[in-house]
Each structure stands twice: as C-alpha cells, then as structure tokens.
Amino acid sequence: MAANEKAKAKGEQAKGKVKKVVGGAVGNESLKAKGRAEETKGNLRAAKEKAKDAIKPK
Questions:
Q1: Strand, coil or helix: what is 9?
Q2: What is the pLDDT along the chain (58 residues), one digit of tens a residue?
C-alpha cells in the first residue's frame, strides 16, 4: 500500500508542477494557484509516507 501512496504523491507533484508552469506561461493565475496547491498536496503526501517509513520497525 505504501508504494501506491508514494506513486500518488509523485503524480500529484508532477501534475501540480505542470499546471503551475502552464498557468504562468499563459498568464492564468487561477491555474497557477491550483498547480501550487496540487504540488503542495503531493509534497505533504510524500512527507507523510517518509515519516511512516521512518517509524516502521525493521
């Protein structure tokens, strides 16, 4: 399950970055803001997964 969550995080980060760049390129502040939000959501999901991995017994 963790691999699935990590993949989701990477996907959200990538989609967010694309939206942010495209929004900036065309001057669409709304799209740019949505991209930043989605990228941040992906970053938070990735951080959560890293934290879960750190506390997981080995």
A1: helix
A2: 578 989 999 999 999 999 999 999 999 999 999 999 999 999 999 999 999 988 888 7
